[in-house]
Fold each of these.
Amino acid sequence: MARRRILLSVTGYDPKLWKELLSTEHDVVTQPDGEAIDYAVVWKHPHGALDGLRGLKAIFSLGAGVDHILADPGLPDVPIARIVADNLTQHMVEYMTWRVLDHHRNGMTYRANQAQKIWREPPQPVAGEISVGIMGLGQLGRACASAFLPLGFKVNGWTRTPRPMEGVTTFHGESGLRDFLAATDILVVLLPHTPATEGIIDHALLRGLRRENRLGGAILINGGRGKLQKEADILQALEDGTLKEASLDVFQQEPLPQQSPLWTHPRVFVTPHSAATSDPVHLAPLMLEQIARDQRGEALQNLVDRKEGY
């Protein structure tokens, strides 16, 4: 098929390998050059980078999230596709399984005890006594639920609209949120960032989690989007006993500012938005296939609904 011109506009990633892989089939530029551009591949692109691009047919996100694209006030009216890949899903499943098991098996307590040379075994419930609640049962959420179930955890799921899943107790909508939280010991957040979900992880929501449990308190794990959470509320919840511990991979501002108290809080585990890293070796071929589909006149996959925000 004919070579096309791609604008690669990324922040936070080294574009070198992406450019090398995409250039095997198409011509890639990293800055608008006044010539026609057929496709844009972006991650947190500078606002305005897509303005007035002649010939633009579609925009592809380098990751599962697209809020960074939708936030551009000058966004062209062309289809937007997000990445859905086994590689990304597997990374997220590994991360969430690691964090759930670490909290379940008292990882923070043991690390603190080791630092102080304390030989003490805390109470250890079995997985069947613990409920993991997943906010968001899209591809990532369902894959994580499928990993938690064989470990013996009780698994709940909450979505805006009904999304039943075998083996999972599901809740939906505002009416189901209270019951979902009340039945959850470890909260896993995998929602997309939309106007409806911005700031949803606040003190009022965290207060709804089940604190009287075999873990000795409620746990928060956010691997979704940073703007879902209010970090001041999370810190308040940790101080007043609403939360026992938290693992956070995403933040309201990234990189997480050096002065943030989350860095040094003894009951917070911080990772640098690395739960499901976009690997160009695995993902660039998916984008090339999307372009090939478009050239063949076939529909693009994993298109974003702009009204829904994902």
Amino acid sequence: MEIAKKFKNIDVVKGDDKKQLGLVSAISVGIGLVVATSVLVSLAQGVGIAGKGFVIAMVIACILNMLTAFSFSELNSLMPVTGGLAQYTLPAFGPLVGMVAVLGGYVICTFFAGSSEAAMIGIVFTSTFMPSVNPSIVSIVFVLILMIANLFEVKNYARIQIVTTSAMIISMMLFGIIGAMGIGTGEMVVQETVAFNPMGMGVLSLVSLAFWLFVGIEYVTPLSKELKDPDKTVPLGMILGLIIVLVVQVAMVYGIYKYVPMGALLDSSLPHMLYASSLLGKVGTYWMAAISIFAVVSTLNTILGSVSRMIYGMAKDGMLPKIFTKTNKYDIPYVAVVLIGVVFIITLSTGISTAEQLVLYILTGAVFWMVAYIVAHLDVLVLRKKYPNHKRGFQIKLFGLPQIIGILGMIYMIVNVSPDPEMKVQILKSVGVWFVILTVYGVIWIKKVMKKNLFETVSIEEVLEMDKSN
């Protein structure tokens, strides 16, 4: 098999002492963002709506994200740069498209969704272990610890990621196995419907919900310069990460279905905690609280480590202020790391991260995330035409079908981003507003600061050279 050859001798590394991270780190980084607290909630809600049939939507969503992983892997092998999508897009469409896609789908989405995740660690921790403590204080302490850890050697980032991700995934798998086998201490329930897929074809409307269970696996790519043998480690890390997440979450689906009535899952604001208490009582509550905390720590650690490098890479290519190119003695883009941490702390201090309006901002950023994936697929197709003979360490052609199917899948999910028509209109209006704001910023910055045309492309060699420069 051609794919198998690409992954042969994955553990063989030659030379470069700066390559500090291996396959386990790559998998941990990918899973670290994919499995967030909101994912645990969405998973349980999906079971509440479709029962075991939610697995169908999950498999489809996982496949779509694997197609995205293929595109990001090929782009990374063409241009192993720190800025990710923004830099990949320069040779294909010029600066404007990449700036809007990355600032919307990653930076803005990160600021709001990341702040919400940070707020959750305080809420879960205090409600379970220390009810008399202010949740915001706990959240801020966690953010500060992670921000400081990310200012030192990249190994610290990897150590935190491996520990938290391993504990989280093993615990989730045990929760799934205990529930699926029916060996919990709680009582199993009899659902009103015993059909595997009571929604029939209607389950396809839940692919958008299932998408959130796998999104973010490409956060591995900004770390490619620190990874051993990145042409193999990046794609293998992403694909294995998605498979691991799918297997664990399918086990959770069967466990949740056996122990919690579907209606109760929909009525609960924390359905994953309801499952934990129904399965193992007080022990389950404490255990799931720990999983939730690990999920938040892992997510925030991934954001601080990867998004900071995206900002750094964009600044090196002139798409953001040069101050973000500053690095410390550990070669960490400390200005970007501190910026992200400060934004989290400000939102936690002001309370905006718990406001109802924040849900709209998160979903708006998520639509931009889908748009970013569409741009990645288009980049691959365009660059294959422009640079057919350029060396690629990873490529799965298949006549461009992975990219075409991926684009159509993203469009479908954008159109079906919310089953509530009123909420859908709100989201799309918000996307329009953010699109205008980012486009205006991009046009002004490109024309006045970069002094380039909006769609002026550069060669792959120029992108690589800019990324090397300090």
Amino acid sequence: MNSDRQARLDRLLDQRDILDCLARFSRGIDRFDRDLFLSAFHPDAVIAAGAFVGGPADLYDWASAMHERDQIATQHNLLNNTCDIADDTAHCETYYLFAARNRDDTNWLAGGRYFDRLQRRDEQWRILLRTNVIEWSGTVPSMPIPFADVPDINRNGAPRRDTTDPSYQRPLTNHRRHNLP
């Protein structure tokens, strides 16, 4: 394999590892999975998010308490991602869409961008510094969740904000009957 192709493959693998790291942050906070959330950060990381500035463990405690108090569901969606990688340091910009079902039955949407400096230590990419900008935010009225009246809709698992969420099920199985409405 020529060296240019090998360099491109190495970069692609680094980018994939970085995207996996960013997804651990999002899934970790949405599922209240502290270990998964913390695995996205180096222990000495600094995060500036809203009113919060501090380390990963304190960020998890602050954010999870806020989400538990104010929302019944959250989704931290990651969108466009650009990444400049130089040796064991990467600088990324990731667009995000935050959506939440609030306890007052409104929905909150916000969009912005995360700016991350990641560092590879012991072959693991993790966030060392995160800042972000919120570019827009608003609430929208709620509607009933679709298909809530289907009797067996949750037979494969109901959405949960912990590790009993169906996304953790291994192997993934179907418990619903065949149905052609």
